[in-house]
Amino acid sequence: MKEKRKHIVVLFIISCLFSFSWLYGQEIREEIIVPIHYYPDYPSFSRTLNENQLLAQLNYEISPGANVFQNNSNLGFSFPVKGLCTITCPGDITQANDAGLCSASVAVPDATLGPSCDATTLTWDMTGATTGSGTGQIGTDIFNVGITTVTYTCDDFAGDPSTCSFTVTVNDTENPTITCPSNITVSNDAGLCSAVVTYTAPTGTDNCPGSTTAQIAGLASGAAFPVGTTTNTFEVTDASGNTAQCSFTVTVNDTENPTITCPSNITVSSDAGQCSAVVTYTAPTGTDNCPGSTTAQIAGLASGAAFPVGTTTNTFEVTDASGNTAQCSFTVTVNDTENPTITCPSNITVSSDA
């Protein structure tokens, strides 16, 4: 009976204080709500309780030393629960870029909110390859190639935020493209074993910025290309390390004939007592705009041979490495300038016949 009377007295005093709160203002109200300030993280919430809620709170059992308010549906309202707003992000996501794009449309699973989270405060923030912010769940969104960190933030009913993060990685798995010019065929420049050739160097393209193109074989445009076939290869590398190559050939044909000059015609007399003459001369050697030419005598007699009386035509031919040829000729004439000889018998003396 004594405890019951004590309880009635307390309630009577509190009711009186509320009745005259207009006189004492905030100071009295702060004094009444002191028991709730046992939890200093919730001063603003404490100041919003009406009289009925306050009376209920004063009769509410709070666990000493705990950092939470216990809920009781019988009170007709709920106190916030400190630190129990749990937000769980989806796992990290890895996806390839969409064809032809430097991004991907990614369906992001929803974050999971605990029962103490105020879903109306859910926000997200993107940093890294993709930037942006918004409210609510992300759903499906466009993410750039690279790594994007997504952070969800949600408050509990007392305004304390909780966060979680995950990454969305979009890999650029698409190779760049490059197209080379058509094969080129030209003749050598006059007197040279090469030709200066110009062309438009190809430039690769990619679905993402940052690709570079380099020539990895052959000669640059405007260079002197040697006779023969040169393969020019270009490679484009994108920012993710994907590569593509193309090649074309530059063929320089040696269409220039070699040259050869023979000595002048030779005329000699036959050697004494011979119907011929040993004749020597300097054999001609052909020249060409390219190395590798060869010279051969294809008619007549070699220098130092015994040329018969009469005219002998000596012909030389030079052939270059590309099969082009040239010829020259000269004559060796041996004249018989030696008189013939005749010997008569000795004089004869005889007597007349009888």
What would your notes on this structure say?
With 354 residues, the protein is mainly beta. It is built from four helices and 21 strands. The chain has a five-stranded mixed beta sheet, with no helix packed on it. A hairpin with a 3-residue loop joins strand 5 and strand 6. Helix 1 packs across helix 2. The N terminus is likely disordered.
Helix content: 10-25%
Helix count, DSSP H or I runs of 4 or more residues: 4
Q: Count of DSSP E strands?
A: 21
Structure classification: mainly beta
Strand content: 35-45%
**Biggest sheet architecture:** 5 strands, mixed
Distance between the termini: 221 Å
The whole-angstrom Rg is 56 Å
Uncertain parts:
1-82
Q: What is the spatial order of strands in the main beta sheet?
A: 2-9-8-5-6
Backbone shape: rod-shaped
The averaged pLDDT comes out at: 83
Order of helices and strands: HHHHEEEEEEEEEEEEEEEEEEEEE
